[in-house]
């Protein structure tokens, strides 16, 4: 293990785009997935319970959920891109374990990217449901 | 000669100074003796009690499991009657989940988290103590019921209408009220731990450096905030049906048993991860120590913890695959259930990668971790299988699922906890556990476990349903069940060996050396045995493994060269730092020993327990006493105005002794609590819209509802009360006591009037909650809101009294700050309640 | 079928799992010995998943043992990082995605409707099954605790419950579906093999949940038609004097308050229809053999045989009446 007594130059930290940072960006991708998941589930449930009935076709709901999928992927993409920008700030590489604001900044960015990746996979999985299921049965 | 002499003089002076510091520091932190010992609130005492108690509950539930396995050893056995067997399996599941699985994580965390963060204590020690006593009282109450033959027998999932209409007796009420009480304690611990992780880190421990354990605890405590409240809301509906015949789950009057299943599993599935993640957190601390290198993939593990936390809330319907929901819903939940396996896999590969990259040291904890991996991976793989709805149609409610869940929970939780026990035992007691019994315990447990549960996969696929007290001979179940029963006793023998090693008196055994495992994280900084103050001085952190990264850290800490090495004013103190970068911002005075938390828990317990027996008068008195006790606790123990504004905290840093608003820990606790509160409220609203989707005529014609007039009046008045409360906060800040008192007094009046108006809507329109589920749903929302405004009223009066008594001033305004925050949420509650009960019928 | 009919390669696994002298996958209630289209599909899915799962388990655990015990020295941490990316981030999404692509299309396939097939209504009641078949004349006929199906026909089930939640499950034919008060759920099954199977209640439904089973008989279509006609007919008049006394005892002791025997004044609807109770394969919802001795035991010790049951035990009946009653009921073929 490396000795971490010496910090990086402070000038890098001063160049950080934001002075106060929050954890929200980190959680944003999975939150988007969650929103997407719940809205899709509610759309299908209400469609089947209130619109077409128990044996009806899922067609309308499928289109709506398809649109949600695209929107969610775009949203996660933007968040992930912002995360990637934070991750590649400055010059250091992973594991982002220096005791500096810059490395903390990069760490949060990297974790955001990873969560974005997971959220994309989870979104695509959920979208498979409407690829294979065509009715409310 | 002279310089050496001078140096030794300096040394001597330095040592004398340190001695004096230590003497002063030990005074406030001294642990009470004799019967007063039970008034202790310090995290190490409470954590020890908590751990011991939840292990006792584990052993109790384990004995229940052995009784079940004895009954099922041979076909058509009559060792236990059907009724007794049903009580036993219900209690086994409930106790393992509610009294061991979740509490053991809280117990461990209360004990080790402050140490890991180099804090002297958690920010709300008395809240931990209150939570512990509540847990003890509720747990003993629930477990004790089996000895009187009145234990719940509805399964740990308590599906209505079996439990609402077809089971007389106290069992179901004991389950509902006893466990609701414990859920409240769990929420208290969650609030405590979140604030602990976010605000009590040592200076320099930025968010990218915190121990992985703390990341997991942050995620898990956050999950508790969203997972437990739906169950509490469900319990409320359930008890209203059982006690007062409000028909939420009665199909004859428009209710629907599936609503309970939704609420239960919205809790129940995240619960599995709430149990699993903290155990994996232990693994994340143990693996680097025995690989003798930093973890590989720190960010990946953070991804896994956070990702699991979110995705686990999208899985609940996979417990309801066979309830006849549309295929598309099943497909959504199948997909999410597969997705959650990804972060789980990432964590395991991070541990593997660390083990590969490091020089692996064999030890008992690591043996348990390896065994856990072997078991858990199999459980995870069968989990991936049952997540696919078509396969679950066969496997659901069979022994296949019994096998699956035990592989997940024992591999993912019990074995890591055993590893954690071996690993952290010296930290808690100063003594090491012996190696040999550890190996025996492991191999007996590992072998016994697999003999018990591996055959169950096949038992289930051969068609044996769960929760059967007997089975016929000759349809293929006999040998498999006998094997499982034999295995269960071998497994139990392993547990006994482990327990004997833990409780064996070790008075003659020498204390372990400091940091006996050569770990890199702060919890190993303490002396053996630990001192009540926890850490001699709070260090400044520069890496993820400070004991490895920072040379001489231990000596510097011991010499008091860091923060808060002294307690000049004789008070218990710890550091509060900022959320992201852990810059010190406050020196927090934490409270010391008291019996008031014990009394508060006894009275709260009384309120729940008397209600079980329908002694509502006694329950009411007990509730009032609980309220009074809590008020005494708050009045005497919180938001104390310090004798000076700030103090020198060491290393030339001067920190304020008092903080209010969003920089204070109390504000954070209130905010977090209210998030949990809102998720319970959201669950009730979900119930309303759930009935909307299942019924053609829900809500019925607006004329039969609470109308618009009274609800609109109510929302107006209540928003007025909110506005005045917020204004009162500002007037207080500007030191205008007159305006403050008049404003808050008016707020009280508006609050009372608004609450009355809210009640008037359904009351005057004659909605009878026992007639149909619609009036019941409206009433329960109103009831929920009214209780909250009642609490808001107490808070408003409390602030008025505090200011009168001079315990609150313009600069020292924690109370009104927190109450105003509470009222922000009350504004949301008022608006949503009225929008749903009065607004939705207009648009539907 | 026995273990030898499990897909090859699985035999090793099964014999490992079953430890010793077990009969592998077989059994009257086994999901691994399919006798229906749906069970067959699910069975195949299971064997595939099982094989891949075993492979993954061996890989992961083998690797862990290698890294910790066989070669515990330090390795390049850059390579270890690739382990996380390859094993944690790339492989699982691919495998799980493939599983979803194979698994999800089964859902519509399993719920494929029984277009013109037989429609059976089953109601789960504590702790027995009320079964209703449509008759050729357009009416319905009520039976209990036994389901007979024509082989090769897709059959629809309408499932419901008047009391608590039950779950209708015939592992040999397909998956289970819950019976929920206030709702009607549906299930379709398509038996492929003639034979006798066993069904069970899979959802915990109270005290005697373990004792709520039933027999499933899959028959040739012609035999099924004959059986259904026979079941739809009223009860045979008792032939022997013993049976006649049994009928008198049945009517005199209030049995008819709960039980129907079509063709007699007994028309109670709370308990199972007994018109052809003697023709069933079992008694007491799949827990006793169907003979006069079992009937006598059941009538005298009802609550001991099935704890919590609604039917009171008629322990006070004189021996003679009991024998007659048992003879009468077991003779209702």
Describe this structure in words.
The complex is a heterotrimer of chains A (137), B (844) and C (333). By secondary structure, chain A is mostly helical. In chain A, 69% of the residues lie in helices and 0% in strands. Chain A is built from four helices and no strands. In chain A, helix 2 packs parallel to helix 4 (101-132) and helix 3 runs antiparallel to helix 4. The termini of chain A are far apart. Chain B is mainly alpha-helical. Chain B has helices at residues 2-29, 43-72, 82-116, 125-144, 162-165, 171-199, 212-244, 257-291, 298-311, 327-339, 341-357, 364-387, 389-395, 399-429, 435-461, 478-503, 546-549, 553-558, 596-612, 616-637, 665-694, 709-733, 737-764, 773-804, 814-843; strands at 573-577, 584-589, 646-648, 654-656. In chain B, strand 1 (573-577) and strand 2 form a beta hairpin. The radius of gyration of chain B is 28 Å and the shape is globular. The model of chain B has no long low-confidence stretch (mean pLDDT 94). With 333 residues, chain C is α+β, with helices and mostly antiparallel strands. Helices cover 37% and strands 18% of the residues of chain C. In chain C, strand 1 (119-125) and strand 2 (128-134) form a beta hairpin. The longest helix of chain C has 34 residues, at 37-70. The chains are: A mainly alpha (137), B mainly alpha (844), C alpha+beta (333). Chain A: Keywords: Membrane, Transmembrane, Transmembrane helix. Chain A: The chain crosses the membrane at residues 23-49, 61-81, 107-133. Chain B: Residues 9-23 have a biased composition (Basic and acidic residues).
Task: Describe this protein with a few key phrases.
heterotrimer, A: 137 residues, mainly alpha, 4 helices, disordered N terminus, C: 333 residues, alpha+beta, Immunoglobulin-like, 3 domains, five-stranded mixed sheet, elongated
At the fold tier of CATH, the topology name of the largest domain in chain C is Immunoglobulin-like
Architecture per CATH nomenclature, i.e. the level-2 architecture of the largest domain in chain B: Up-down Bundle
CATH topology of the largest domain in chain B: Cytochrome C Oxidase, Chain A
What is the strand content of chain C? Answer: 15-25%
CATH superfamily of the largest domain in chain C: Cupredoxins -  blue copper proteins
The quaternary structure here is heterotrimer
Amino-to-carboxy terminus distance of chain B: 95 Å
Helix/strand structural class of chain C: alpha+beta
The CATH class of the largest domain in chain C, by name, is: Mainly Beta
Overall pLDDT level of chain B: 94
The CATH class label of the largest domain in chain B is Mainly Alpha
Shape of chain C: elongated
């Amino acid at each position: 293990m490396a000795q971490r007594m010496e910090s990086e130059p402070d000038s890098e930290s001063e160049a950080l785009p934001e002075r106060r940072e929050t954890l929200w960006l980190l959680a944003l991708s999975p939150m988007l997935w969650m929103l997407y998941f719940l809205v899709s589930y509610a759309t299908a449930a209400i469609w089947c319970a209130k619109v077409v009935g128990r044996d009806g076709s899922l067609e309308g709901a499928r289109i709506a959920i398809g649109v949600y999928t695209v929107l969610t992927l775009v949203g996660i993409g933007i968040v992930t891109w912002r995360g990637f920008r934070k991750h590649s700030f400055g010059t250091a590489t992973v594991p982002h374990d220096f005791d500096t604001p810059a490395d903390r900044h990069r760490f949060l960015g990297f974790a955001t990217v990873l969560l974005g990746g997971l959220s994309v996979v989870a979104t695509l999985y959920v979208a498979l449901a409407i690829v294979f299921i065509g009715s409310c049965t | 000669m002279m310089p050496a002499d001078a140096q030794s003089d300096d040394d001597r002076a330095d040592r004398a100074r340190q001695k004096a510091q230590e003497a002063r520091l030990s005074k406030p932190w001294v642990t009470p003796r004799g019967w007063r010992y039970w008034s202790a609130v310090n995290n190490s005492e409470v954590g020890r009690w908590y751990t011991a108690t939840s292990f006792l509950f584990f052993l109790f539930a384990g004995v229940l499991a052995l009784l079940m396995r004895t009954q099922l050893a041979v076909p058509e056995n009559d060792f236990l009657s059907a009724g007794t067997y049903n009580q036993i399996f219900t209690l086994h599941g409930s106790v393992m989940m509610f009294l061991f699985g979740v509490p053991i994580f809280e117990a461990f965390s209360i004990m080790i988290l402050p140490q890991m963060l180099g804090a002297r204590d958690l920010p709300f020690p008395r809240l931990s103590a209150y939570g512990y006593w509540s847990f003890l009282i509720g747990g003993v109450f629930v477990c004790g019921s089996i000895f009187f033959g009145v234990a719940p027998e509805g399964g740990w999932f308590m599906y209505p209408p079996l439990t609402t209409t077809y089971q007389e007796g106290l069992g179901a009420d004991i389950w509902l009220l006893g466990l609701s009480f414990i859920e409240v304690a769990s929420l208290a611990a969650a609030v405590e731990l979140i604030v602990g992780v976010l605000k009590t880190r040592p200076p320099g421990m930025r968010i990218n450096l915190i121990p992985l354990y703390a990341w997991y605890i942050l995620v898990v405590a956050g999950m508790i905030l969203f997972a437990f409240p739906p169950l509490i809301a469900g319990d409320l509906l359930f008890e209203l049906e059982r006690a007062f015949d409000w028909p939420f789950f009665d199909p004859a009057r428009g209710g629907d048993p599936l609503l309970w299943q939704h609420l239960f599993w919205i809790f129940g599935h995240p619960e599995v991860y709430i149990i699993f993640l903290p155990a994996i957190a232990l693994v994340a601390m143990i693996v680097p120590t025995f690989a003798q290198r930093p973890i590989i993939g720190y960010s990946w593990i953070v991804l896994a913890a956070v990702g699991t936390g979110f995705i686990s809330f999208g899985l609940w319907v996979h417990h309801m695959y066979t309830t006849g929901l549309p295929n598309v819903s099943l497909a959504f939940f199948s997909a999410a259930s597969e997705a959650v396996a990804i972060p789980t896999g990432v964590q395991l590969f991070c541990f593997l990668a660390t083990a590969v990259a490091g020089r692996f040291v064999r030890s008992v904890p690591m043996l348990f971790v390896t065994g856990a991996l072997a078991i858990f991976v199999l459980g995870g793989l069968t989990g991936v299988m049952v997540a696919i709805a078509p396969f679950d149609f066969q496997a659901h409610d069979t022994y296949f699922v019994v096998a699956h869940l035990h592989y997940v929970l024992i591999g993912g939780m019990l074995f890591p906890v055993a590893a954690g026990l071996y690993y952290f035992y010296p930290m808690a007691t100063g003594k090491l556990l012996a190696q040999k019994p550890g190996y025996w315990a492991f191999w007996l447990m590992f072998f016994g476990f697999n003999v018990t549960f591996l055959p169950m996969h096949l038992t289930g696929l051969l068609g044996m349903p769960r929760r059967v007290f007997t089975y016929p001979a000759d349809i293929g179940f006999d040998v498999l069940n006998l094997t499982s029963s034999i295995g269960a006793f071998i497994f139990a023998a392993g547990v006994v060996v482990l327990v004997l090693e833990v409780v064996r008196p070790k008075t003659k055994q020498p204390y372990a050396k400091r940091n006996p495992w050569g770990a890199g994280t702060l919890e190993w900084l303490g002396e053996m045995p630990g001192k009540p103050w926890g850490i001699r001085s709070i260090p400044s952190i520069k890496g993820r493994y400070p004991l490895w990264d920072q040379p001489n850290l231990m000596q510097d800490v011991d010499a008091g060269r860091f923060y808060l090495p002294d307690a000049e004013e004789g008070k218990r103190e710890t550091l509060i730092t900022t959320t992201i970068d852990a810059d010190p911002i406050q020196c927090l005075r934490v409270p010391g020993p008291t019996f008031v938390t014990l009394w508060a828990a006894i009275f709260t317990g009384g309120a729940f327990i008397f209600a079980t027996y329908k002694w509502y008068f006694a329950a009411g008195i007990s509730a009032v006493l609980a309220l009074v006790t809590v008020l005494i606790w708050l009045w005497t123990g919180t938001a104390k105005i310090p004798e000076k504004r700030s103090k020198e905290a060491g290393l030339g840093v001067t920190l304020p002794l008092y903080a209010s608003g969003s920089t204070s820990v109390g504000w954070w606790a209130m905010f977090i609590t209210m998030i949990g509160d809102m998720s319970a409220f959201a669950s009730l609203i979900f119930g309303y819209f759930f009935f909307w989707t299942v019924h053609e005529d829900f809500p019925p014609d607006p004329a039969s509802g609470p109308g618009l007039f009274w609800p609109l009046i109510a929302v107006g008045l209540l928003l007025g009360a909110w506005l005045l409360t917020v204004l009162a906060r500002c007037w207080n800040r500007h030191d205008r006591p007159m305006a403050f008192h008049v404003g808050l007094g008016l707020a009280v009046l508006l609050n009372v009037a608004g609450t009355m108006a809210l009640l008037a809507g359904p009351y005057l329109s004659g909605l009878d909650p026992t007639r149909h589920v619609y009036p019941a749903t409206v009433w329960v929302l109103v009831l929920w809101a009214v209780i909250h405004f009642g609490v808001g009223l107490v808070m408003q009066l409390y602030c008025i009294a505090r200011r009168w008594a001079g315990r609150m001033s313009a600069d020292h305004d924690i109370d009104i700050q927190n109450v105003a925050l509470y009222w922000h949420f009350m504004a949301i509650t008022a608006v949503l309640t009225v929008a749903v009960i009065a607004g939705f019928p207009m648009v539907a | 079928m026995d273990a030898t009919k499990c897909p090859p390669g699985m035999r090793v696994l099964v014999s490992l799992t079953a430890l010793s002298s077990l009969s592998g996958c077989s059994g009257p209630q086994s999901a691994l010995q399919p006798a229906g289209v749906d069970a067959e599909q699910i069975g195949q899915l299971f064997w595939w998943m099982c094989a891949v799962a075993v492979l993954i388990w061996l890989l992961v655990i083998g690797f862990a043992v290698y890294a910790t015990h066989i070669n515990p020295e330090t390795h390049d941490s850059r390579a270890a990082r690739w382990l996380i990316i390859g094993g944690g981030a790339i492989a699982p999404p691919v495998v799980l995605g493939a599983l979803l692509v194979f698994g999800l299309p089964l859902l519509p396939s399993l719920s494929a409707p029984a277009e013109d097939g037989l429609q059976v209504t089953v109601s789960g009641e504590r702790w027995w099954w009320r079964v209703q078949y449509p008759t050729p004349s357009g009416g319905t006929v009520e039976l209990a605790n036994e389901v007979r199906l024509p082989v090769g026909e897709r059959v629809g089930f309408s499932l419901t419950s008047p009391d608590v939640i039950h779950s209708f499950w015939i592992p040999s034919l397909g998956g289970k579906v819950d019976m929920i008060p206030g709702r009607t759920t549906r299930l379709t099954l398509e038996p492929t093999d003639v034979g006798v199977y066993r069904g069970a209640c899979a959802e915990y439904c109270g005290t005697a949940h373990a004792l709520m089973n039933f027999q499933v008989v899959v028959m040739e279509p012609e035999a099924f038609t004959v059986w259904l006609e026979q079941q739809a007919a009223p009860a045979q008049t008792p032939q022997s004097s013993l049976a006649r006394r049994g009928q008198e005892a049945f009517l005199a002791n209030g049995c008819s308050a709960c039980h129907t025997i079509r063709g007699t004044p007994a028309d109670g609807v709370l308990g199972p229809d007994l018109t052809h109770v003697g023709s069933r394969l079992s008694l007491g919802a799949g827990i006793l053999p169907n003979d006069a001795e079992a009937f006598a035991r059941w009538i005298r010790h009802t609550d001991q045989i099935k704890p919590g049951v609604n039917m009171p035990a008629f322990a006070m009946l004189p021996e003679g009446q009991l024998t007659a009653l048992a003879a009468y009921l077991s003779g209702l073929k």
